[in-house]
Amino acid sequence: MRLYFENPVGRVFTHSEGYLRLEYKPGLRKLDELKALVHHLSNLYERAGYHRILVDQRQMREFTPAECTWVAEYWRKLAEGRPPLYRATLPPTASLARLAAANLLALASTVALVNKSFDDESQAVTWLLKSHLAVTA
Known about the structure:
The protein is of the alpha/beta class. It has a single domain (2-136), classed as Transcription Regulator spoIIAA (2-Layer Sandwich), CATH 3.30.750. It has 4 helices and 6 strands; from the N terminus they run βββαβαβαβα. It has a 6-stranded mixed β-sheet with strand order 1-2-3-4-5-6, with helices on both faces. The longest helix is centred in the N-terminal third of the chain and has 17 residues, at 31-47. The chain is globular, with a radius of gyration of 14 Å. The protein starts with a strand and ends with a helix.
């Protein structure tokens, strides 16, 4: 794995097997910092052809309503007319954060965003690697 971007909200890595890894950090977030993290992640999706993302939210605090709205609208618009984006999620351990993350996924739902949640990281990676077959088929 190679670190691509890091800020107080999280880290974005590129993985040698062709997927991205987004790790959210614990603690409070500023919306501008969240936007910067998401923009760097989406640059790899748009320009470098990554269509698989492992999202590690286990340490994350709950999304605010403003964060949920912004992220959901951003990804829905970005995904229009593009190949599907496969996202394996390791959900937050905190109950409120888990509910907020589920709400975000419901808001961002579109045919172009395929998401599956996992409690086990190795199962999430296995699913992501298999999802590549659907992208190239």
